[in-house]
Structures are given as structure tokens and as C-alpha cells.
Amino acid sequence: MRNPEEPVSDTIYAPATAPGRAAIAIIRVSGPEVGPALRALAGKLPPARVARHVRFRDPDSGEELDDGLALWFPGPASVTGEDVAELHVHGSRAVLAAVMAALSRRGLRLAEPGEFTRRAFLNDKLDLTQAEAVADLAAAETEAQRRQALRQLDGHLGNVYRGWGARLLRILAYLEAAIDFPDEDLPPEIEREVAEGTRRLASEIGSHLEDGHRGERLRDGITVAILGPPNAGKSSLLNVLARREAAITSPIAGTTRDIIEVAIDLIGYPVVLADTAGLRDSADAIEQEGLRRALKRAEEAELRLFVFDATRPVDAGGARQWPGRDTLLVANKIDLAATDQSLPSNAIHVSALTGEGLPALVDALAARISQIYDVSAPVLTRARHREALETALAALRRSLAADLPELRAEDLRLAWRSLGRITGRVDVEDLLDVIFRDFCLGK
Question: What are the residues whose beta carbons fall under 8 Å from the beta carbon of 353, sequence distance 6 or more?
């Protein structure tokens, strides 16, 4: 919570809805002058947490500005912990400009991006993981992204880190007691309990880090590389899956020279399809560069679709370079293949031209993605979390290897501080600008 001796913060306002013509727009206001400002514009304060129909007027001229709703949330029982108001007005630019100009003349200022959420953090309404979840929830484009952000906003991820921090603090307290009071009659098993507790915690953090970057990939998009020999219909398949002409297609082999990426929503998961250059040896310098990029993207992708021409089943052998369940074999142009054509038993038969087999391909791809990414346990969602956990894990391992109890205690303190930085309990001032600067206005 804010120290009562600190200067009272400014009162801020910002539109909480997207700009442009709309039926309704919401202006959010937070700070110590909210009550007087709302009374000046609406005539009186509405009952707490009850929407009231009001006629907004300019406090200086008395001119009517709009007809809408006013809501009043006295602090600390508000989203920011301060006095908060919401003005629900008609969503035209003229109305918004007039109402915000009136607020500005009352001495209020336009909020910085993320400032409402930042104040909620500073007033202990949210920890940093929840504050980041607010931004993720506002930016979510698929069901999976929404579910992940909502779980984090509910505090599941923060609870994991706070639990580890509490356990680590207890371990550190035991060790400090043994160091500071060597002549006291302390239980002899303290040293063993400290070592076992440190080892268990290091094991749990290590397992948490070995998640295949699922949380980060779910935020940014799961990459699926489409690769295979030239003229196998990779670009046509990309266009069909994307439901638009994203890539140029032609019967000329080697049309695609660079990587073409298209973002799609696949059963609620954010997927980035990457069409790549055909895999073949060539003396052409541009094709060689395209091949290099294709191979690099194939290695980096979470999943791969190896596409080959069903009339040339021998080309399916190129998929051996990427064995495993993360590569789906796709026999395209099945409409041109002979009925007795011998194709690999694990190939999915499709025709990008007629649409035959495409539902089966989508189902197979979706099943694999949901198997990897549909997790109920809290997962890492940001590089910031991963960096802090890696620092904590390294400190715990150093502590286990240290000879002197004083060195072990120092490493445990470093690990505890690293865990605290994730939720914002220690050393967070240098993180705040980085975390909140990417928020939208009004959040």
C-alpha cells in the first residue's frame, strides 16, 4: 500500500474503450479528486457501485455535454484502490472530446498507458503476474489465449511463486538461526532439513522451467512450418488453411523463395502457418538462401507439415529428416493420384484443389496442438518470469554446493529475491516502466 506520508497522486482519466464511432464509450477516472469532478459534471454523486442516469454538463459554462450513466466506486474498494468513476457516454469523438476537456479543466490529467493497472499494483490490488495478465487478456485473440490469461489473472501463477517464496524464506530462517545462534540448543536435523528443502525446491523450479516454452508460445502464436519438395502444393495448402490468397501459386516449381507467414485461429489456438521454399538442391543463390531459411524455420517450429505430391510418393522420404510426432506427413494432390497409388500409411491424404481430406488434416493438427498446449497447471508466460526463475535455480544449486553456511544463506537470499521479483514483492521499481508501457490507454 502507498505510505500515507507520500504525496497524494494525481487524478487521472482516459477512455477505456476503443476510439471510433460507437454506441457507447467509457471514460475511467481514478484518484483523490474523482468525487468533486464527478459531482461537478453530473450534479451529484450516485450511490456507490450503482449506475445512475445523468445529464453531464460543463462545470464552467453549464452547457449540456451528453446524456449517459455515471458510476462511483469509492476507494479502497475499487479496481485501483483509489476513488474511481466511470462515465458511460455516447461513443462519438465529439462527445468524448467535450467530456475529457471538461475533466482536464478541473485539473485532471490524461493517464499514461497502463497507469490504472499500475496503481492497482501499487495499492496491492494485483501482483505483477496478474497485472501482466490484464494486458494479455486485453490482447487475447483466441480462446486458448483468453483462458491462459484469465487463469493468470485469477492468481494461479502468482500463487505458485509466492508458495515457493514462503518455503524458501522458511528454509533461510532455519539456516540463519543455525548461523546466528551456534551455541543454542537447536535441533540437530536443521542442516539436513535445509538441504532437503533446497533440493526439493530446486527440483520443482527446474521442472517448471522445462515446459517447452508453452506459455510464451501460446501468447505469441504456435508456429507450424509447411515444408516439402517444390511444386508439392505447399502454398496452395497454406491459402486453403488461411482461407485467403496469402501466397502466390503457380505450376512453376520454386515459386516460393522466402517464408510467408499467416496467423490463423485453429480451434481456439493461435497458430502461425509458415510456408517455406521447396527443399531441393539448386545452383541459384536465391534458392539456396530460401532453402537455408526453410530448414532453419523447420527446426525452430513447434510442428511441421511435410507436404509431398501424391503422384510422387518417393518424395515422402524427405520427411525422415524430421522424425517424430511433431511432423505430420501430408500427401497433397490426391485428386491426381492413381487409385492404386502406394502411399505411406501414416500420410494424411488431401487435395488443396478440391478440399478432399482437409477436415482430417485440420483435426490431426488440432489434436496435436491441443495435446501439447491444453494444460491446466500454471505455465510460464513471459521471458521475465523465466529469467528470474533461472537466476533463482542457479542460486539454489550454488547453495547446495557451498561449503560454508554463510555462503549457502547468501545464495538462498538471492534465490528468494529473484522469486519475489516475479510477483513484485522485492526490487520491482526498475521493472514497472517495462511492464506497463505496452498497456493500452485506459487500462
Answer: 233, 236, 333, 335
Q: What does the pLDDT read at residue 405?
A: 81
Q: What is the mean pLDDT of residues 108-123?
A: 93
Q: 437: closest CA among 51, 118, 53, 23?
A: 118
What does pTM read for this prediction?
Answer: 0.77
DSSP category for residue 10:
P
Residue that wins the pLDDT comparison between 60 and 289:
60
Residue that is written with C-alpha cell 497433397 in the block:
332
Distance of CA 149 to the CA centre of its chain: 7
Q: Which position has the grid cell 496469402?
A: 246
What span, in angstroms and rounded, lies between the C-alpha atoms of 48 and 341?
Answer: 74
Cβ atoms < 10 Å from Cβ of 60: 10
Q: How far apart are CA 302 and CA 297, in angstroms?
A: 10
Neighbours of 318 (CB within 10 A): 17
How many CB atoms within 10 Å of residue 340? 5
Q: What is the enclosing helix (H) or strand (E) of 20?
A: none
**Averaged pLDDT, 329-356:** 86
Structural contact between residues 124 and 424, judged by C-beta atoms closer than 8 angstroms:
no
pLDDT of amino acid 437: 58
Q: How far is it, in rounded angstroms, from Cα 335 to Cα 310?
A: 9
179: Cβ–Cβ under 8 A, 6 or more apart, which residues? 405, 406, 409
Grid coordinates representing 273? Answer: 502457418
Measured CA to CA in angstroms, residue 272 lies from 246, 264, 265 at distances of 13, 6, 9
Residue 413 dihedral angles phi and psi, to the nearest 5°: -65, -40
Cβ atoms of 260 and 214 within 8 Å: the answer is: no
Strands (E), 4-141: 12-15, 22-30, 52-57, 64-73, 84-91, 109-110
Comparing 170-184, 375-389, 402-416, which segment has the lowest mean pLDDT? 170-184
What is residue 104's three-state secondary structure?
A: helix
The pLDDT value recorded for residue 76 is 94
* Structure-block grid coordinates of residue 435: 511492464
Query: Phi and psi for 362 in degrees, rounded to 5?
Result: -60, -40
pLDDT, tens digit, 9 for 90 and up, residues 205-262:
999 998 878 888 888 888 898 888 888 888 888 888 877 665 444 454 444 456 788 8
Q: List the strands of the sheet with 109-110, edge to edge.
A: 52-57, 64-73, 84-91, 22-30, 12-15, 109-110
What grid cell was written down for 187? 535441533
